[in-house]
Write a structure and sequence with these properties.
By secondary structure, the chain is mostly helical. The protein is built from 21 helices and no strands.
Length: about 350
């Protein structure tokens, strides 16, 4: 077959595949008297991208030859479908890996909760002499933050600086978050203060770091500074502020909650309502907290009712014990495996 005809038929297969018409794509592929590695890669990717992983793997195994693009197609397909072990299995079989191979697999591990494995894979990539990209650095700093691996995070930070990635806002924000979640507030603040431009996500990361380490007032001070700097908060910022008020028994929680929509145009999410209900419960305002949970425009979660039940244990009296019993039943209806509600209920009656 002339080379032009081969290219044309490969293009037709790709076109049908991009429209999701695997039947026509396969019909054209099967009818081709000659196929090259591009032909095979195109049909393998077509099945993989449309979720037909088993058929994609069958075709992959039938290929007379494979290039790195074909291998990466299978790695990407497994990774995007959350099949991390299969993705890594294909990665390990590859005779030659490129940056795409690693940049697909490392985030897949992290996004599926396998942060230690993601870090180990990052180190393996480093040993092969391949340069991480922006997304990989962000992913690996988030992984270090999640499992509180400050020492490893510092080492990777030292690699990001000479490579120039630490100057990019997504990377610098992920580094800030890593230090904050690992309790290294001075280093987090140093990075925050050194940012030439700070957007909402950077402010939110720094504000969130303070209450996590027991500095609620500093979070509120920085929130006020954020307003003076003309930066609008988002839902994540607001949750950090409300958490500060709630967990450190500060009085401004309700004020901040009301101002979300009135002053900042932020529509409160379920997390905001749960947070302020917890704030009211901790303050002993049990009836208000219960009314808020009942009337919020979201279906109450077991967390909301369990937090309120805990408040009843702390602040309740004989008149509130019947309500506590009703709350425990609410939790049990929503989550039959949740036995903590009955532990709290028992201690409520004992108090």
């Amino acid at each position: 077959m002339p080379q032009q005809n081969l290219i044309a038929r490969n293009t037709i297969v790709a076109a049908y595949a991009s429209e999701g018409d695997l039947g026509l794509a396969r019909m054209v592929f099967d009818a081709m008297p000659e196929k090259n590695v591009v032909s095979w890669t195109t049909i393998v990717r077509a099945y993989a991208q449309n979720g037909h992983l088993r058929e994609a793997r069958v075709l992959f195994e039938k290929m007379p030859e494979r290039d790195v693009v074909t291998w990466n197609s299978m790695v990407t397909a497994y990774a995007q479908n959350g099949l991390v072990d299969q993705a890594v299995d294909v990665l390990n079989q590859m005779p030659c890996r490129d940056v795409v191979s690693w940049h697909v697999t490392i985030p897949a591990y992290s996004h599926n909760g396998h942060n230690q494995q993601a870090i180990a894979l990052f180190r393996k990539m480093d040993l092969e002499g391949l340069q991480p990209n922006e997304i990989t650095f962000v992913t690996i700093f988030d992984a270090c933050a999640t499992v509180s691996l400050l020492r490893v995070g510092k080492l990777i930070h030292a690699e990001a600086v000479p490579a120039g990635f630490s100057a990019l806002e997504p990377v610098s924000t992920s580094i800030l978050t890593m230090y904050g979640k690992c309790g290294s507030l001075e280093e987090a603040r140093r990075i925050f203060d050194a940012m030439p431009e700070r957007r909402t996500v950077s402010w939110s990361a720094m504000i969130s770091a303070y209450p996590e380490s027991g500095h609620g007032l500093l979070a509120l001070d920085l929130f006020k500074e954020m307003g003076l700097d003309g930066v609008e908060p988002d839902g994540i910022t607001s949750i950090a502020v409300l958490s500060s008020c709630c967990h450190w028994e500060l009085k401004d929680g309700w004020t901040y909650f009301v101002s979300l929509r009135n002053d900042y145009g932020v529509d409160p999410m379920a997390e905001h309502y749960i947070c302020i209900a917890d704030h009211l419960g901790r303050a002993g305002r049990l009836a208000e907290a219960q009314d808020l949970i009942h009337n919020m425009p979201f279906h109450p979660s077991p967390v909301a009712w369990t937090q309120l039940l805990s408040a009843y244990k702390t602040h309740g009296n004989n008149q509130t014990k019947l309500n506590a019993d009703e709350l425990a039943q609410q939790v049990q209806k929503l989550d039959e495996t949740n036995s903590s509600c009955y532990v709290l209920l028992s201690s409520t009656y004992e108090s």
